[in-house]
Design a protein that fits this description.
The chain is of the alpha/beta class and about 450 residues long. It folds into three domains: about 5-120 and about 250-320, FAD/NAD(P)-binding domain, CATH 3.50.50.60; about 125-250, FAD/NAD(P)-binding domain, CATH 3.50.50; about 335-455, FAD/NAD(P)-binding domain. Helix content is about 25%, strand content about 25%. It contains twelve helices and 25 strands. The strands form seven sheets. Strands 3-2-1-7-18 form a five-stranded parallel β-sheet. A hairpin with a 5-residue loop joins strand 13 and strand 14 (about 230-235). Helix 1 (about 15-25) runs parallel beside helix 8. It is globular, with a radius of gyration of 24 Å. The N and C termini lie far apart (about 70 Å).
């Protein structure tokens, strides 16, 4: 009989526990021992739900938790909470772990190691950045800390630093909790993953709910009280009083532990893996926000922190660890968000990304309605397509609108995934009924306009 092997998983959220669960389905406890360590208080939860918990849309924290440690233990997965991995010894095939609360340390051996350390919030290296009341947003503990500060500290003024997805969602959450909210961003528009013409709509929506935007202003520091609590955010132009600060500057792959062990990272800072999620270190796998992926359009490496990718990558790793065969094809950068009443979505490349990848592209923008114009509840939406010159191949898409707008990006993502051209997309057989779409769906209108632009461009070239 073969000796029982041991899988050690570092990180117990989407990627780590997807891998552990898939491996367990294929290999029983008598064949494979699974130990997972997690330094936080929570495992297998929805980080994307944090702004809704902070804003009070989701009242109970438990609603964000997919599975408890006890449920994993019932599946013969030994999940140890408040246990932090502090060192990986590749030569000895072991990991040094520390009891976060007790402080004791010990070595745990492995036959296979799964690194799923996620991402960490970007914190500016500025005076006062570590003050009390300055919060990053990445793990569920962060959401709990902000919610507690709102309930116990009774703040009146909040400043959000950064205008990406999480910054905008947290700004809206602060408004919902009755605070005066300011948002500061170095960029000239919020949501830099969109092109400026589409991002301007988001800026207007934020102003409409009372958020004061200070764009194109670098933060220079954080002022504090004698007891070390933040009191203001200082930019190059002004000082904004603050009882609470949220950092929405994005995240970076949490790879310090892996890099210290000699596990290779790429230009994005994420761990390099092959399509089966194996690193270049023997018997070491990685998945989730800590790895870099291949972009399906540009072909280049990207680090896009999304739970969708983390779950898929963890599943792939787990299937392979369990003796099966699976690969992760890459990412298209598809994302959706709801900012106030405005829905926003994107897939593929924006204009600047397409240019950076070496594509010559054309862009079209169309305005349409989410339903038949005569149907109650119809609202306007803008759809932008970016296509390659001459070939007409779809390179990227963006949508900004109100209810029922954003999820149309799924059809565009499928078209992009399959390398469709704008002309081919004009024939898509999309669903129609007045409550859901006009007879010419906005996607079809945009595709027709893009196809016409390609044809006109071709005539100009000839």
């Amino acid at each position: 009989m073969a000796a029982r092997e041991r899988l050690l998983v570092i990180g117990a959220d989407a990627a780590g526990m997807s891998a552990a669960s898939q491996a367990r389905r294929r290999r029983g406890a008598g064949e494979l021992e699974i130990l997972a360590v997690e330094r936080g208080h929570h495992a297998s939860y929805s980080a994307c739900g944090i702004p809704y918990f902070v804003g009070g849309v989701v009242e109970e924290l438990d609603k964000l938790i997919a599975r408890t440690p006890a449920e994993f233990r019932d599946r013969d997965i030994d999940l140890r909470m408040r246990t932090e991995a502090v060192e990986i010894d590749l030569d000895g095939a072991r990991v040094r772990v520390r009891d976060v609360e007790g402080g004791g340390e010990r070595w745990e051996s492995y036959d296979h190691l799964m690194v799923a350390t996620g991402a960490v919030p970007v914190r500016p290296g500025l005076p006062g950045a570590d003050a009390k009341g300055v919060h990053g947003v990445q793990i569920l503990d962060d959401g709990v800390a902000i919610r507690r500060a709102l309930e116990q500290g009774e703040p009146r003024r909040a400043v959000v630093v950064g205008g990406g997805y999480i910054g905008l969602e947290m700004a809206e959450a602060m408004v919902m909790q009755g605070l005066e909210v300011s948002l500061v961003d170095l960029a000239d528009q919020p949501m830099q993953t969109l092109d400026p013409d589409m991002g301007a709509i988001i800026a207007d929506a934020m102003r409409d709910i009372g958020v004061k935007l200070y764009l194109g202003e670098p933060v220079e520091g954080f002022e504090t009280s004698p007891d070390g609590h933040v009191t203001a955010v200082r930019t190059g132009r002004r000082t904004l009083p603050a009882d609470l600060v949220v950092l929405g500057l994005g995240v970076r792959p949490n790879t310090g532990l892996a890099r210290a062990a000699g596990i290779e990272t790429g230009p994005t800072g994420g761990i390099v893996t092959d399509r089966r999620m194996r690193t270049r270190a023997e018997r070491v796998w990685a998945a989730g926000d800590c790895v870099e992926s291949r972009h399906l359009v540009s072909g280049g490496p990207v680090a896009i922190p999304l739970g969708t990718h983390a779950n898929k990558q963890g599943r792939v790793a787990g299937i392979n660890l369990g003796g099966g065969y699976a690969t992760f094809p890459g990412v298209a950068g598809t994302a959706v968000a709801k900012i106030c009443k405005v829905e926003v979505a994107r897939t593929g490349l924006n204009e600047s990304e397409a240019a950076a990848a070496g594509f010559a592209s054309l862009s079209v923008v169309v305005e349409s309605t989410t339903r038949a114009g005569y149907h109650p509840g119809a609202t306007t939406m803008k759809t932008k397509l970016i296509v390659e010159r001459r070939s007409g191949r779809l390179l990227g898409a963006q949508i900004v609108g109100e209810e029922n707008a954003a999820k149309r990006v799924d059809g565009l993502a499928i078209a992009l995934w399959n390398g469709m051209t704008a002309e081919e997309m004009t024939g898509l057989d999309l669903g129609y009924a007045p409550p859901f779409a006009p007879v010419w769906d906005p996607v079809l209108i945009a595709a027709r306009k893009a196809a016409d632009a390609v044809e006109e461009d071709m005539r100009a070239w000839s």
